[in-house]
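haha ok so turns out i had the wrong file open the whole time. this is the CORRECT one, sorry everyone. sequence first:
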Amino acid sequence: MEVRELAQGWFLVDLEFQGVAQAVAAYVYKGKNGVTIVDTGPSTSVPALMRGLAELGVGEEEVRQLVLTHIHLDHGGAAGLLLERLPQARVFVHPVGAPHLIDPSRLWASASRIYGDLMGQLWGEVRPCPKDRVVVIEDGERIDLGDGRLLLALSTPGHASHHHAYLDPATGLLFAGDVAGIRIGGLRFVFPPTPPPDIDLGLWRHSIERLRALRPTRLCLGHFGAVDDPDWHFDDLLARLFLWAGWIGAQLELGAEPALVAERLQALTDEELQLVSGGGVPLPAYHLASGSYRMTVDGYVRYFRSHRPFASGL
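then structure:
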């Protein structure tokens, strides 16, 4: 498995989600006063996470903080299970997400509508988090990493209403969750993850411009890894996010059913990925990270119901 140092104190751990490399990442800060994990991944990836911690020489009692960018199961699904294993840890989360960690029944029901019979295979068990170990982190608040290091929480809706990104000012690393999209292996292609129920293209654009203004040195993506060209990355994400909105909206206006639109989108996108990569695209990682093209289309459909059919983000 891949465990790689990114900057002073920070390490990437490949969670090998469903046995596929470079699909889901966790980030580990190893400090003198304890260990912080940014995004736990799902419960099915806990064995990989624990192997990564062992490779870093981290004991279970050393982990103090689980910091979630958002509560989608591929980013925070393991939080409750990990709190049972890590006696000193607390979980830090956006205020909208906190109630769903304490009682994950609605989160599980919502995901079940998308993944159906695959829930157990993909995500495993989602355990509730004890209320006294859940810390609500507001926009602009800081999490103490120890060693004089801090993480700045940044409310970044668009992909999800309960989304934070986190900046380490000491290194310029920006832990972007899913608001900065999906990009595997540094490929020059950023996939916009648009699952239902609460994507918002206008808020998403504003979130990206807020992050861009911080001038991060590197983006640390949940899917997958650190990239060194934030401005290009943000530009490509926004271009495709709104291009797909117009294209999907036009297809729906012409009477195509969402399933057919998803099939067409996958064919076009997989072809573009092949061209961009010279035939070496990690399609399994892209497909796992994005969920499915039907989920991508359904997110836009849900957005169009409450906004203009051809969303501009204005």
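The longest helix spans residues 230-253.
again sry for the mixup
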